[in-house]
């Protein structure tokens, strides 16, 4: 499927991340909440003596491998304040650990105001915030069924989406439409080069069925982008490792769609989620001695199913990447040294999680993973605790 067909598909398949989000955000009450997740894992996802990269795929942002032992996956302090009926402010202070270190930082801080056009709700937001194109872009272990980030989140968004920008949303004919403009501080863009996105969100509710569908389009630009995950100036990098000096200059166009279903069949609830993301790259690659022109397409697929009964939830997930990298004006040696030669390997990851809500504030979580993101796959298990508490 060529990019043109993807764009047509992206614009005409509605998508949603939450029910009637324009009204939902506008009606959100004042609140302060803390969330955290702590997990013990049986194995490292990758050697701590090498740079973590999937064959054929460049990584960045906060995409770092999970580690053996106990880790503080994340801590979030979320606040929302309505200023009379004029505007609101939302904020998130967060932290997550890597290599035994963690550091608090202001992840998000943005303002919003509500209005209407011809009786239709309209919402404007500006500040440091996360994209709303897909929930996959905004992974936190304390919010998700699984403690490890989706493969699609690591590859296409650098795990966490955070950028300075503005967003406008309006609800028309039951569909929430939105547009975003960004400075480019989030992977795969570079600061100042910018990114933009369009999305459409729709939800269907009837007789115990809550179904959501949707699509989005995002374009970003990068100039001399390098892998900063292990650099001295990066809070979560391993100072004993040094990433390559490979730079990426060019355009990334992504299109995606997903659907999810919740079906209440008392006393059980069935869950199903599917997602597809395609990224097209048109870029120049360079290191200190060599260059290459990259024309690539990478498709990511996620399938997730589950069932809930009383305070217990069981879910299974499978993700896969299909990588098609094409190079010109370069050598095979450069391609292999850059890590972009995948030798027909398609990174994949499967997981099963059981969650027990044994208290209104606490969840116990245990998981099993089969990680085939590298040519030699590994398996691991984990146990952990998730805590949500409303301070206000």
Overview of the structural elements:
- It is built from 4 helices and 18 strands.
- It has 392 residues and is mainly beta.
- The strands form 2 sheets. Strands 1-2-3-6-7-8-9-10-11-12-13-14-15-16-17-18 form a 16-stranded antiparallel beta barrel.
- A hairpin with a 4-residue loop joins strand 13 (268-286) and strand 14 (291-309).
- The chain starts with a helix and ends with a strand.
- The model is unreliable at 1-19 (pLDDT under 50).
Query: What is the SS-derived class?
Result: mainly beta
Q: Order of strands across the biggest sheet?
A: 1-2-3-6-7-8-9-10-11-12-13-14-15-16-17-18
Based on CA inertia axes, which overall geometry fits? globular
Task: Please tell me how large the radius of gyration is.
Answer: 21 Å
Strand content: over 45%
Task: Figure out the total of helices.
Answer: 4
Instruction: State the end-to-end CA separation.
Output: 49 Å
For the residues shown, what is the average pLDDT?
89
List the helices and strands and how they pair.
Blueprint lengths: L2 H10 L8 H6 L4 E11 L27 E15 L3 E9 L1 E2 L2 E2 L2 E13 L2 E10 L21 H7 L5 E10 L2 E8 L12 E12 L2 E17 L21 E19 L2 E19 L4 E19 L2 E17 L3 H7 L9 E9 L5 E11 L5 E13 L2
Antiparallel strand pairs: 1-2, 1-18, 2-3, 3-6, 4-5, 6-7, 7-8, 8-9, 9-10, 10-11, 11-12, 12-13, 13-14, 14-15, 15-16, 16-17, 17-18
């Amino acid at each position: 499927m060529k990019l043109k067909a993807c764009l047509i598909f992206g614009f005409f398949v509605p998508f949603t991340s939450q029910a009637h989000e324009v009204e939902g955000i506008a009606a959100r009450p004042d609140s302060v909440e803390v969330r955290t997740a702590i997990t013990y894992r049986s194995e490292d996802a990758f050697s701590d003596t090498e740079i973590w990269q999937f064959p054929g795929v460049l990584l960045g942002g906060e995409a770092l491998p999970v580690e053996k032992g106990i880790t503080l996956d994340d801590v979030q302090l979320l606040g929302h304040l309505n200023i009379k009926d004029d505007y609101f402010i939302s904020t998130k202070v967060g932290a997550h650990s890597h290599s035994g270190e963690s550091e608090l930082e202001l992840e998000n801080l943005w303002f919003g105001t509500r209005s209407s056009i011809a009786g239709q709700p309209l919402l404007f937001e500006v500040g440091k915030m996360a994209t709303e194109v897909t929930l996959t872009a905004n992974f936190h272990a304390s919010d998700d069924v699984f403690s490890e980030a989706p493969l699609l989140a690591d590859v296409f968004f650098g795990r966490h989406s955070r950028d300075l920008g503005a967003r406008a949303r309006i609800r028309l004919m039951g569909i929430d439409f939105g547009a975003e403009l960004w400075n480019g501080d989030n992977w795969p863009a570079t600061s100042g080069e910018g990114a933009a996105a369009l999305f459409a969100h729709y939800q269907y509710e009837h007789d115990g069925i809550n179904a959501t569908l949707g699509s989005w389009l995002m374009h970003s630009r990068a100039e001399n982008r390098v892998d900063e995950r292990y650099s001295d100036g990066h809070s979560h990098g391993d100072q004993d490792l040094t990433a390559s000096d490979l730079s990426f200059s060019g355009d990334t166009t992504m299109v995606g769609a997903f659907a999810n279903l919740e079906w209440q069949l008392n006393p059980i609830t069935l869950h199903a989620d599917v997602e597809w993301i395609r990224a097209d790259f048109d870029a120049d690659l360079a290191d200190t001695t060599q260059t290459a022109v990259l024309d690539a397409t990478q498709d990511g697929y996620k399938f997730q199913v589950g069932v809930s009964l009383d305070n217990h939830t069981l879910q299974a997930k499978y993700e896969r990447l299909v990588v098609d990298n094409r190079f010109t004006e370069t050598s095979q040696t450069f391609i292999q040294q850059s890590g972009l030669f995948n030798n027909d390997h398609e990174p994949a990851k499967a997981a099963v999680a059981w969650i027990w809500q044994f208290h209104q504030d606490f969840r116990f979580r245990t998981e099993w993973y089969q990680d085939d993101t590298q040519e030699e796959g590994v398996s691991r298990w984990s146990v952990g605790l998730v805590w949500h508490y409303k301070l206000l």
